[in-house]
Amino acid sequence: MSASLNRVSLIGNVGKDPEVRFLPSGDPVASFSLATSESWKDKSGEKQEKTEWHRIEVFGKLAEIVQQYVTKGSKLFVEGTLVYDEWEKDGVKKTMAKIKLGFGAKLVMLGGGGEKSAKPKREESKAAAGDDADLPF
């Protein structure tokens, strides 16, 4: 069987303050939207811009860090896996793509944006694997 890879990397700005909920196990999950934009000049030379919105879910110790330091406007680099949630509402099947930051994921705070002042520059989610040794707190 051949190897496969499910890895997504994004750099963008947080759309609103993260929402944190807790799993039945007590583990935290932080959710937020991340906007990425691209710009180009069209055939007539006018600047065009398109923004894509991505749903991000962060698990474990990294979710606690997100809750503490990430706010609306924060500029982040995230790297995780692409997952799809499916559900049915009023007889209509719905699907939503999300980027999951769990084991082996990365989150780098690039500065700028958000309102909270004491932000670490970089966090990687080794904490999601239960290894807190690399965290500055």
CATH topology description: OB fold (Dihydrolipoamide Acetyltransferase, E2P)
Sheet-strand content, in percent, reads: over 45%
Query: In terms of per-residue confidence, which ranges show pLDDT below 50 for 5 or more consecutive residues?
Result: 116-137
Helix content: under 10%
Average pLDDT value? 84
- Biggest β-sheet, characterized? 5 strands, mixed, barrel
What is the CATH superfamily?
Nucleic acid-binding proteins
Spell out the key features of this protein:
137 residues, mainly beta, OB fold (Dihydrolipoamide Acetyltransferase, E2P), five-stranded mixed barrel, 8 strands
Describe this structure in words.
With 137 residues, this protein is mainly β. The protein has a single domain, classed as OB fold (Dihydrolipoamide Acetyltransferase, E2P) (Beta Barrel). The protein has one helix spanning 61-69, and strands spanning 8-14, 19-22, 28-41, 47-59, 75-89, 92-101, 106-109, 123-124. The chain has a 5-stranded mixed β-barrel with strand order 1-3-4-6-5. A hairpin with a 5-residue loop joins β3 and β4.
Detail the topology: elements first, then pairings:
Blueprint: E1 8-14, E2 19-22, E3 28-41, E4 47-59, H1 61-69, E5 75-89, E6 92-101, E7 106-109, E8 123-124
